[in-house]
Amino acid sequence: MSDITTLSNQPLGPSPRPRVSRRGSAAALMVLLTGTGCGAGAVGKVVRPTQPTAGEALGTVDVECRPEATDAQPLVVDLPSSGRVDLEVAMKEGVAVVAYDCKTMRLLTGCKATGSYDFAGVSRKEEVIKLEDQGEIAANLPFNGVKISGGLERGAALDLALVLIGKHSTMVDAVRRFELAGRCDGATHFVRSASVGAFALDVGTRGEARLVADVFGAHAGAASTSRRKSVNHDGDLAECRSATPDDATPPAQCRSAIRLELVPIAATGPEVDATPVPATMSLSGLAPLADPCPEGFVLTAGKCAPRASAQVFLCGPDDRQTCEDQCAKGSTGSCYNLGHLLTGVKDLCKESKADNCLAVGVVPDGDPKYAQYVEGAKAYEKACEGDVAAACYYVGRHHEDGVLGKSKDDVRADQQFERACMQGHAMSCLHLTQKYEGKDRNDPRAVKYAQRACDLGLKPGCFSAVAKYLKGEGTPKRPDAAEAILTRTCDAGEGKRCAELGMLKLEGHLGPKDVAKALAVFSRGCELKYASSCVMQAQAHLGQWGVPLDREKAREAFQKGCAAEGEKSKACVDLAKRLAEP
Question: How many CB atoms lie within 10 A of CB 567?
Answer without folding.
Answer: 18
